[in-house]
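sorry for the late reply, my laptop died twice this morning and i had to redo everyting from scratch. anyway the thing you sent over, i finally got around to it. pasting the sequence first so we're on the same page, its 114 residues, then the predicted structure underneath. double check i copied it right bc i was rushing
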Amino acid sequence: MPPAAQSPPRAAGVAPERSLTQRMDALKRANDVRTARAKLKRDLKGGRTNIHGLLLDPPEYLLTAKVFDLLLAVPKYGRVKVNRILTQCRISPSKTIGGLSQRQRNELVSYLRR
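ok and here's the structure:
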């Protein structure tokens, strides 16, 4: 018996084929996100933006950013202090802003307000 007609197997983790236009659109979106995040980090460093509001109601471009990286942009917060804060609030250093539960958000903001 001949084998059933099947589409060729796709390797796990391989992105589907995209047209040039789709790839260029994705690249533009990624660059816009990077630019917006860099500006936000500069604003945090300069004290022009408040971390509490960003954690409670993050803009869409911030949802995939790591909590650890965002906290590092806050003045007087280094790796040791950020790790201690995340441990205290039971948040993984690899957690994204969008992946935070409401409990984690509230706990982190109340800890930072101390």
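The chain has a mean pLDDT of 90.
thats about all i looked at so far, will dig more tmrw
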